[in-house]
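Deliverable D2.4 — example input (structure tokens):
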């Protein structure tokens, strides 16, 4: 069995509030291999916070705890900022949800990609510029020279998302965390972006954590799926088996989706149960120690 790229054990993220401590992520465990791992759940279920905790982006007063958080056997839990900056972007990259809030509005696209690449590769500027052009071509931007000199407000949402992917993949990371990378895109552009990510991840042998609300999209695109509820993983199963999920929360999410092949007058409302918050009541599929390698 190959060693997973990323191993997470008992990861928790806690924030102090006036009412006491709030656990945004509550003791989750999983492995990531060279695969496309989908993370699905409602807003507030802890999906994005999990990605931020892995990258060390949870700032005080937030607290990150885990029994283990390793990248290819190396512990990255609560590393000093200087060490974590070498990993963040260099070995693990994250594509945020909306490029409008991730790209610097006063720097050209080329300047931002070059800066991100040189930070980790220590390459001369000419080499970094050539790398930036190659990455823009890799994400199917037709006129990379023109886009290099454009500002973020001068490109469309779909192009902005592709620029973010190019920037994050330029340093050749081992893992890419994509947080709702297609939620603001129309269907045709979404398909293009997914195909680009699929090809780049497959060709480079990377691991992908794909965070999404869209169950149908995750079932089609990913290899394996984690279902999160209230900061916990309630079910883990192969993506191809998502529509045969057993946990009542997953079933409730699936049943609330409209289906062309089975129309109904009114979609059911998800009925929540307090027991779903309990770690010992996971569905039979929820094997949090599944090996990540495929």
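Example output (designed residues):
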């Amino acid at each position: 069995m190959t060693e997973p790229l990323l191993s997470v054990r008992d990861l928790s993220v806690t924030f102090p509030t006036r009412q006491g401590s709030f656990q945004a992520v509550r003791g989750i465990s999983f492995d990531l291999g060279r695969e496309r791992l989908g993370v699905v759940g409602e807003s507030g279920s802890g999906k994005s916070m999990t990605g931020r905790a892995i990258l060390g982006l949870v700032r005080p007063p937030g607290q990150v705890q885990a029994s283990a958080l390793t990248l290819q056997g190396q512990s990255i839990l609560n590393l000093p900022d200087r060490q974590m900056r070498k990993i963040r972007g260099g070995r693990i990259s994250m594509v945020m949800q909306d490029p409008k809030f991730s790209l610097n509005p006063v720097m050209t696209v080329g300047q931002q990609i070059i800066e991100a690449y040189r930070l980790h590769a220590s390459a001369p500027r000419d080499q970094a510029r050539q790398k930036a052009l190659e990455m823009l071509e890799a994400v199917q931007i037709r006129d990379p020279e023109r886009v290099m000199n454009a500002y973020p407000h001068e490109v469309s949402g779909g192009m902005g998302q592709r620029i973010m992917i190019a920037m994050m993949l330029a340093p050749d990371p081992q893992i890419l965390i994509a947080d709702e990378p297609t939620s603001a895109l129309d269907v045709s552009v979404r398909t293009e972006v997914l195909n680009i990510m699929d090809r780049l991840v497959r060709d480079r042998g990377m691991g992908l954590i794909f965070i999404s609300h869209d169950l149908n999209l995750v079932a089609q695109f990913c290899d394996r799926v984690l279902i999160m509820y209230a900061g916990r993983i309630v079910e883990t199963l192969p993506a191809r088996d998502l529509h045969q999920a057993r946990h009542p929360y997953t079933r409730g999410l699936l049943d609330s989706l409209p289906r062309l092949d089975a129309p109904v007058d009114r979609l059911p409302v998800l009925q929540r149960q307090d027991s779903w918050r309990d770690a010992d009541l996971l569905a039979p599929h929820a094997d949090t120690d599944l090996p990540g390698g495929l």
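The chain has a mean pLDDT of 85.
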